[in-house]
Sequence to fold (109 residues):
Amino acid sequence: MEMNEMVIFGIISNAGNARGFAYEAIEAAEKSEFEKADALLKEGHEAIGEAHKFQTEMIHAEAQGNHIEFNIILVHAQDHLMTAMSELNMAEKFIKLYRKMEEKCGGSK
Fold:
């Protein structure tokens, strides 16, 4: 596999993991398992960080004059990363809301 492809698939893989952690965190919060939700959010942010490192590697390569070939897989990777970042942020908002509901209603959702 070419270096660019390895980096691109690193973005896709880590972004996908982050999305999975985000949804698992929401599910945990729905069950009032907030410590688990927090741990899953942390894992999601770590996965996003890894995906971002791959993206940064490509940006640095391009800045150093190593042309990165534009293709549909790269577009997909970027789309996947941005979506995962957005979903992780939204998961944080949902979990915050579930916490408030728990505090105000005592768990009766």
Observations:
- The domain at 3-104 is CATH 1.20.58.80 (Methane Monooxygenase Hydroxylase; Chain G, domain 1).
- Residues 57 and 63 are 10 Å apart (CA to CA).
